[in-house]
């Protein structure tokens, strides 16, 4: 009986995590839509901006971004193509591996990220405040 209760508690905890994620994702999409972005778009811009801010890479391989934003390589490629079309990122060949593609922020992408980051962080703060 105790094992069943523990199992039930574990499943309820998992479902609460999924629910919080879904609510937060929907709220991010709603708020970011006003800036022409969805949550996944912003995550890619944020990963690229973090690289620049840390003084490290200003360009990442597509696979490195995929690992950080939890999208399949094909979904990420479509997203990057859309961001590139909007002038927010640019793609280039990787000097170390000619089969790989590197992605970096453009000036326009960096400016939009700077404008939208406080909005995204406010949503995260508000949505995750009660998650503890």
Layout of secondary structure:
Elements lengths: L1 H32 L5 H15 L5 E3 H8 L3 H13 L3 E5 L7 E5 L1 H22 L4
Antiparallel strand pairs: 1-3, 2-3
Helix pairs in contact: 1-5, 2-5
- Beta fraction: 5-15%
Give the terminus-to-terminus CA distance.
28 Å
CATH fold type: Arc Repressor Mutant, subunit A
Determine and state the CATH class. Answer: Mainly Alpha
Number of helices: 5
Radius of gyration: 18 Å
Structural class, judged by helices and strands? mainly alpha
Q: Main sheet?
A: 3 strands, antiparallel
Mean pLDDT: 89
- Helix coverage percent of residues? 55-70%
Shape: globular
| Number of DSSP E strands | 3
The CATH architecture would be Orthogonal Bundle
| Count of discrete structural domains | 1
What does this structure look like?
This protein has a single domain, classed as Winged helix-like DNA-binding domain superfamily/Winged helix DNA-binding domain (Arc Repressor Mutant, subunit A), CATH 1.10.10.10. It is 68% helix and 10% strand. The chain contains 5 helices and 3 strands, in the order ααβααββα. The chain has helices spanning 2-33, 39-53, 62-69, 73-85, 107-128, and strands at residues 59-61, 89-93, 101-105. It has a 3-stranded antiparallel beta sheet. α1 (2-33) packs across α5 (107-128) and α2 (39-53) crosses α5 (107-128). The longest helix has 32 residues, at 2-33. The protein is globular and about 60 Å long. The mean pLDDT is 89.
